[in-house]
Amino acid sequence: MHLSRKGWNNVLIFSVLLIIFVFNFSQKLTLSPKVHQRSVIPESVTIVEIKTPDYQITRLGRSWQSEPTLGLSEQQLNTVVDNWQHLKLTTQDPVSENAAPYTIQVYIADQDQPIIVQLYQYGENYLLQTDSDMSLLLEANQLPLLLGR
User: Fold this and answer.
1) Nearest to 76, CA basis, from 2, 149, 1
2) Measured CA angle at 82 (ends 47, 133), to 5 deg
3) Alpha-carbon distance 46 to 82, whole Å?
4) What is the mean predicted confidence (pLDDT) over 59-76?
């Protein structure tokens, strides 16, 4: 195939445009919004107590006790506490509502101050917020997994 100088210039221009298009398109694919998930409390810490306005769950040695009693077995209380660190929830934008939150204090070993978790109603679901940067979506059917009721 024998092309003139003008023909080769056109081939070069279209090749460069094609390469730019491919790089641009591949970057958009890698930057597409991904669903991020995380747990409410990091797995690397040890929870020693969870306080809500209605009750508290306290660690006694290797077992858990609720006061007032929630009617849950020791194994069920252990599962509730484990869910705070292992249940993966979808991240959301921070809460901007002025509604009063249901405040939960999670005390961890080797820290004097608790982690403050604010629970907000979000339609039929809930949002958990531990900082001002983001919140976590908690579906209505998942609420008993964290609160035990």
Assistant:
1) 149
2) 70
3) 10
4) 89
